[in-house]
Specification:
Strand content: 25-35%
Strand order of the largest sheet: 1-2-4-3
Radius of gyration: 15 Å
Order of helices and strands: HEEHEE
Number of strands: 4
Shape: globular
Largest sheet: 4 strands, antiparallel
Oligomer: single chain
Distance between the termini: 26 Å
């Protein structure tokens, strides 16, 4: 799925923050990940991005529960999918081809 203008802008912000972190040598790698997750309504569903700062457990149960909890909060906050939702796609992504994945994108649809 090609990234739109908003997603490219968000990725640029992530890269800028990572560069600033490295430049300041603040030890970001030791921090637990913090979610900065934009939520977008789509036709009949949503698109949600969970970002990790520093090393990120993309497949561990604890980290996945935290991402899904944040997704659930975003769905409620945006008043999307009042009857619930189904996640159709989960995709770990990296900012560049050579970088380790540090973003998880969820695409879902609302239940009727």
């Amino acid at each position: 799925m090609p990234l739109g203008r908003a997603e490219r802008s968000a990725l640029a912000a992530v890269l800028l923050a990572a560069g600033a972190c490295l430049a300041l040598a603040t030890g970001c790698a030791g921090q637990s990940f913090k979610l900065r997750a934009p939520f977008e309504k789509t036709a009949g569903g949503f698109w949600y991005r969970a970002d990790c700062r520093g090393p990120c457990d993309l497949h561990g149960d604890t980290a996945e529960r935290e991402r899904l909890r944040a997704l659930d909060e975003a769905v409620r906050r945006e008043r999307a999918c009042p009857a619930g939702y189904v996640i159709d796609k989960r995709e770990p992504l990296a900012v560049t081809r050579t970088a380790l994945p540090d973003i998880v994108v969820y695409e879902g649809r609302c239940k009727d």
